[in-house]
């Protein structure tokens, strides 16, 4: 959002400037100058020439771009127009990319407008020093170590001065701006306008591919450039090296209103020569196309056919687009319908679960609780089953307990009946006598055990039976245990009977 605001602001600021630059006299006439331009496709022909341009040094041209200087050490290259311009005011738009693996690159790229063509292997960013005219330099490397590079600047020379590389042209620059133009996601662009002695350089940072994202880099008034000149692009690398690629160079001549007629005043000889050259170029292009068609008979289709469409194709495309839109809407509707069905199924599931619980659980819950089941956590089927099982088990246990109680009751009644039939309470047994009897019995047993122990502890030789009658140890202990069990059993039975009697009477 901010970006757009900035773009709109910059645009609104720049537009009046440009109008002022062009004067208040009305519309400026613009004319594209193809003889001072290049762009893809077919930027370079099959013979590697660029129509209307010459290049040299380490420059390499392809159908898509010109690599003015490759990313190798100490490379220099340049590309220059073949002919001098024939218009006074102009605008050029250049799309380029300076890219390299290093955090710092070198040396930079220059755009020229000079009275003579420069070198292809010169000292100033790949071309000639002591030039006459304008140089716009994209200086990557910070020679004076002032941390102010990459830098864009305009330098005008009258053919006498050396470029001050050591100071990055600091004192010679007409104007400039600090902009990083290296390694951008999209090609960087510059628009250089020279109109009525005002030089303007706009810069596109290459952060977007929006055509409108230009910003002002420099503006200088009262600039006097040669009335006619050559355009050139050059680049150089040093110890550090970037690729310097140019994708297009588009020249537009600018004509103040009412002066367009004067275009005809271009020397007739030059005009004829250029027209002839253009015709030759067109013919060459057609020949190349024919040749290609002959060499590739299978690919009869013209490469520009893709750019056009017949009425039928347009109609089909429109129908297809309408259908695509309809399909999209239907898909959305279907998705929403699925959602609704899903919700409905979920609700039905809840209803049936709670209904089952009501059927199996007996009485239905009150209306409030019923409502809560729908809105809150639902009781699930297996939980209901578990509850029912527990309930059944509890019922069964209760039933068993009831049976056992009945049994107990019957037995008790039977016992009471027996007691009544058997006579008085107490049963005629003397408790005191029994205890005394048991104490005597226990004493006898104790003495017996002690006797056995004494015998066991006797030496082997004395272990033989004396003259009296002798019983074995195991039968004796068994007899003892049986006696004890009988006595204790009788005693417990007696106690129980006594208690019952006390309870009921
Ligand atoms: Ca420099
Ligand atoms: Ca510097």
TrEMBL record:
Where are its TM segments located?
473-493
Where is the region Disordered? 354-373
The subcellular localization recorded is: Endoplasmic reticulum-Golgi intermediate compartment membrane
Gene Ontology terms describing biological process: endoplasmic reticulum to Golgi vesicle-mediated transport
Sorted alphabetically, the keyword list is:
Coiled coil, Disulfide bond, Lectin, Membrane, Signal, Transmembrane, Transmembrane helix
Q: Which GO MF terms are attached to this record? A: D-mannose binding
**Membrane-topology descriptor:** Single-pass type I membrane protein
* Coiled-coil portions: 271-302, 391-418
The family database entries (InterPro entries) matched by this protein are listed as: ConA-like_dom_sf, Intracellular_Lectin-GPT, Lectin_leg
Main location, first listed in the record: endoplasmic reticulum
Domain L-type lectin-like positions: 30-254
Cellular component GO terms, alphabetical: COPII-coated ER to Golgi transport vesicle; endoplasmic reticulum membrane; endoplasmic reticulum-Golgi intermediate compartment membrane; Golgi membrane
Q: According to the UniProt entry, where is the signal peptide?
A: 1-23
PANTHER family the record matches: LECTIN, MANNOSE BINDING 1 LIKE (PTHR12223:SF28), VESICULAR MANNOSE-BINDING LECTIN (PTHR12223)
Please report the name of this protein according to its UniProt entry: CLUMA_CG016243, isoform A
